[in-house]
Amino acid sequence: MTDHELAARLATEAGALLLNVRVELAEASADDRKAAGDKRSHEFLMAALGAARPGDAVLSEEGTDDPVRLRSERVWIVDPLDGTREFSELGRDDWAVHVALWQGGELVAGAVALPAQGMTLATPTVAHPPAFDGAPRVVVSRTRPPAVALQVRDALDGTLVEMGSAGAKVAAVVQGRADVYVHAGGQYEWDSAAPVAVARAAGLFTSRIDGTPLIYNQTDPKLPDLVVCRPELAEAVLAVTRGN
């Protein structure tokens, strides 16, 4: 099984597990669903990666950061449940599972499962988003849209699309349901590694908000900002974001 196939399979299977958690804990509190989803998906992914790729390191949002990854040639970067709040709200579908592989300084494989949408987007080939020539649609958090995203919306004379998790937002750009995703103010490598791998495979532009490359498997896994957009919009978006 290739690394691409493994990433897709594990993200999809973790997603199926999470759907079962939702059913099992439908009458429980939202906090209980959050805790169970994070824990069970993390445990599944750690066990599955340990069995399939025992020589590789893993960086998971829900795990203890093992510095061995900094000396490893291959590191899986996973978010067992991206969009915990949305997952805990029964009926919402804007949450995801992220599984990415970093090797030799680059993201080389990745998958974003959208379990409640019945879909997994995965490398090596992802369909490019369909053409769109209307007002650019800027996807933002439904509860806390960053100021830079609002500035981009204004500069491009665009519209806002509200959505939950980072993975769901990037997937919306990949699918052609949005055109720009800009974030600033707090994310980690596991929030963006798999989505960025998928976005690149779909021909989208990705970078930090200052235009510099997104770099993974760093000592400090905080990676607080990013841009994912249609390539034809990159120059206009960066003209705004570089000032932040």
TrEMBL record:
Reaction(s) catalysed (UniProt annotation): adenosine 3',5'-bisphosphate + H2O = AMP + phosphate
Bilayer-spanning residue ranges: none
A matching Pfam family: Inositol_P
PROSITE patterns: IMP_1
Domain of life of the organism encoding this protein: Bacteria
InterPro entries recorded: CysQ/Inositol_MonoPase (IPR050725), Inositol_monoP_metal-BS (IPR020583), Inositol_monophosphatase-like (IPR000760)
Coiled coil: none
CDD domains: CysQ
Keyword tags: Magnesium, Metal-binding
This protein's name: 3'(2'),5-bisphosphonucleoside 3'(2')-phosphohydrolase
Upper classification of the organism: Bacteria, Bacillati, Actinomycetota, Actinomycetes, Mycobacteriales
